[in-house]
Amino acid sequence: LIEQWGVLSLSQNCIRVHSKGGLPTQNFSDEELHSLLSFAYTDAQKSMLCIGGNLNKIFSYDIHQNVIVSKAETSQGTAVVKYNGRYLCCGGIAGDVSLRDPYTLQEQMVIPQVHATISDFDVKGALLVTCGFQ
User: Fold this and answer.
1) CA dist., res. 35 & res. 14, Å (int)
2) Cα dihedral angle (52, 126, 118, 95), rounded to 10 degrees?
3) Residue 1, SS3?
4) Is 70 within 8 Å of 45 (Cβ atoms)?
5) pTM for the whole thing?
6) β-bridge pairing 6-10 and 14-18
7) Which of 54, 75, 97, 101 is most buried by its number of CB atoms within 10 A?
C-alpha cells in the first residue's frame, strides 16, 4: 500500500513501512504473526489494518501506535482481505467469504464455499465477484 508518508509492505511474518526513498522507518513483528498473506485498511483515516494469513486468526493493527489492537478466531485461513466501507470481507483459503465488522472483527455473515480456494475477489455494494481454483 502506497501513501504520502511511505510504503506499507507485508512479508510472511511482519509489517514494514519504508520511506519513498526506500529507507525502513517502521517494522512490526509478533510471535503470532506468521504465514501472512494479505492486509487492508479498515478505516477512512487509514490508521488501522486488518491482517490475515494461513492461520486461523485475523488481526487488527494500528499503524501509528505500531501495536496489534485486537484479534479474532477464524474457521479457516484468510487469503484475501478487503474493506468495502461497511464490512471487512475475508476470503478464506477453503473458499468461504466472511463478512466481518471492521471494528470488532466479529463475523456478521458467511457466504459458503464458492471455490476450493479464493485467489481474489471484489465487492461493490451488494455484488461480490470471486475468482479461485480447485
Assistant:
1) 9
2) 90
3) coil
4) no
5) 0.85
6) antiparallel
7) 97
Q: How far is CA 5 from CA 1, 50, 55, 60, 77, in A?
A: 11, 19, 30, 21, 31
Extract the C-alpha cell encoding 48: 488501522
According to the per-residue pLDDT averaged within each range, which of 40-44, 75-79, 113-117 is highest? 75-79
Identify the three-state secondary structure at position 133: strand
Query: Which among 89, 21, 19 is positioned nearest to 52, based on CA atoms?
Result: 89
Average pLDDT of the chain? 88
| Band (115; pLDDT cuts 50, 70, 90) | low
More confident call, 39 vs 134: 39
Contacts 24+ apart (CB under 8 A), 80-83: 80/37, 80/38, 80/52, 80/118, 80/119, 80/120, 80/121, 81/38, 81/39, 81/40, 81/50, 81/51, 81/52, 82/40, 82/121, 82/122, 82/123, 83/40, 83/41, 83/42, 83/50
